[in-house]
Amino acid sequence: MVRTIGLHLRLTTTLSDLIDKAIRQKSNVMQCFFILQETLSYVSFEEGELEACRQKIKENFKEVYLHASYWVNLAGMRNNGWRTFKREVELARQLGFSHVVIHPGSATGCKDRQEGIVYLSKALNRALEKYDDITIVLENTAHGKTSVGGDLEDFRALMALITEPHRIAFCLDTAHAYAYGYDVSTVQGLEDFITLVDSCVGLEKVRVLHLNDSEKELGSRIDKHATPGKGRIGLEALQRCMNHPKLQHASVLLELPVLEDAQEIELLDMVRSWDK
Length: 276
Prior knowledge:
The chain is α/β, with parallel strands linked by helices. The protein has a single domain (5-274), classed as Alpha-Beta Barrel (TIM Barrel). The protein has helices spanning 15-24, 49-60, 82-95, 113-130, 153-159, 174-180, 187-200, 235-242, 261-274, and strands spanning 5-8, 29-32, 63-67, 99-102, 135-139, 168-173, 206-210, 213-214, 225-226, 251-254. Strands 1-2-3-4-5-6-7-10 form an eight-stranded parallel β-barrel. Strands 8-9 form a two-stranded antiparallel sheet. Helix 1 packs parallel to helix 2 (49-60) and helix 4 crosses helix 5 (153-159). The radius of gyration is 18 Å and the shape is globular.
């Protein structure tokens, strides 16, 4: 079976142009924000363009991931970005996106991280009740303190509060894990990390792997991706992670620093060559 492998693509012009770029890369999966890179404004569509995008998505991709904007903070007590999340998810549904990836957020205004997890669970339960045609994917994060989802045990606590836990999926980001303090660069560290993921959420719920290198050191709690092979994790460890027997079912997405198109394709081809 051919692995589902692609890139997170930056939205710089139109969504139609972004989709065409993914098609040229011969990807069967893509991920993007709905926020334009330069202006931080929302994507817009000319007459008929939205339906044309929907058709191209339907014809060319197995999976399409919206990455919710960083304005969404569903673990916050107030001003948590629910309206932004709702707007983005509803556009994703119109376009035929299959998944929406969100960072769990920070317990802003809460007395502690545990209270933030409760607020997050309420928002997710509301979303599950409202949307049944797109999969919500929670991503582990790099940060500590009030941020939810750096410590994988946060997800164990969260899932106990979810009304339909079977409908929540997970994304593992290797750079985030490493920056938080899980040493996925070593054989034993990766095994320990995978065992903990299985204990906290269940490996069958891991839908996608963000196969990223980290510019910052182990345990730095700083989220900064490096070009694969030029960071602290390294190519050998990334390949080992991608091909781990317990992660073979997960789709693979690279979230690269700003590179030339030719460099992106070279890295994409390299990772495709790892597929066993």
